[in-house]
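fyi for ur records
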Amino acid sequence: MSDNLVSINTLIDQHPQLTEKALIDFINGLEVTDDHIRVQNNVNSGFLSRTWSSINGESALRQNTINQHFGESLKTVSVWLENLQHQTIQSDLALIKVSEKLKETRTGLILMLERHQSLKYQVDEIIVQIEDMKNHHQQLSARLELVDCGRLATQHMNAVFDKWKAGGFRRFPILTRLFLVYDELYWGDFGHYCRQCGLEHREIKRLVEQVQNKSLIQLESEWQKSNTPYLWENDTKNQLQNLNTDYREMLVYLTNGAPLDEMPLTWGLNQLANNPSQDYLNNSNLPKFLDMQNAINRMSFEFEARYVKQYI
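which gave:
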């Protein structure tokens, strides 16, 4: 087994869901200290410390820019609002910018009101204008965002399977490759679209079926047909023992928190990655043998449970 240190930037480039999961875990850790401690205790501290350093550095909070607008006159604000009301905004990027500016302006006006009570009447009128416009923009933005989410989800799905086809997961055991594909979809644009629309949405069902079909096509060229039925646990253990420690710890991190009863396959991968030299797993929910279709069905089922209950 190679224990050469893998750059955290390399890990994130190869498995971008690390960034999303790390940020979510960090936020959850602030709200629930016990959960944060559990995550830290279950993963090698050296790997996590490098992960947090990278993530925290890239996601530093921007400085608050509201103060620079305090000095703007009410006349300027009024002119800006009047011009904005006469425009029809279609671009989602423009909508985001406008919404940010409306929020910023409203906050500045409220702060100005606290300092200048004499302007109360004028400020109140402008705030009413802002609220009316904000509601209109939010409705239009929601429609545009949903359409854009579907486009990004399809692009994301194709990109992940292109990476798989190009050998991006070849260092991992076959079942772990399938997990990493579903995991990357969960944390990216594909998963965001599923959470926005729900798994019962017609378009989501079509995309999920595409993921299953694409997985089957890819597994056709990689599945160990000579070992049928596939003794996945023994094969996974053997390959994980030869996997670089950092990649193995990454798998432990990504599978951490999977419930034994509802996500047994992901739970089993976590146990094997954490200790590949252990005896066979003791879980009645785990199959001893797998074929391609059964592996895909099980992984799809576990990730549907993950979408619904927001596990890990």
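The two ends are 28 Å apart (CA to CA). thats all i got for now
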